[in-house]
User: Fold this.
Amino acid sequence: MSDTPLHYRKPGWFTKHVFNRAVAGATRLGFSVWGSRVLEVKGRKTGAPRRTPVNLLVLTDTAYLVAPRGEAEWVRNVRGAGGQLDLLVGRRRTHYVATELVDDEKAPVLRAYLQRWRAEVGVFFDGVGPNSTDEEIAAIAPKHPVFAIVER
Assistant:
């Protein structure tokens, strides 16, 4: 939602072929790993459903999805689908509508996200962590899309 050039860090081989598949597999079986869900969204080009593991953050009664790697395909697909998405855990499917936050709204969400998942995703935040200043978090906010989601 900013004029910043697209930012994306591709996952390494281990993350793509082992870690993400293990988390997605456990989530499909009904085991949420630290809030993990499988995001399903209609592909913006093919219209076919696309799935990827995500971390669901709930902060003061609002649910959020954060893109730690930046402008990932799932981010573009959520935008292309008008915010319509599903989150899956086992056989449970919940329908959501996502609204993307502007950069000025992201700091408390990014701070909470980093507090919970820094060990897993901290490398993607350029040294910024949960104890960083508001200014430091604001500086990296344009690189990390954040969506507030509500059940539909």
Observations:
- Strands lie at 36-42, 49-59, 62-66, 84-89, 92-100, 146-151.
- Residues 5 and 143 are 9 Å apart (CA to CA).
- DSSP finds four helices and six strands in the chain.
- The longest helix spans residues 13-28.
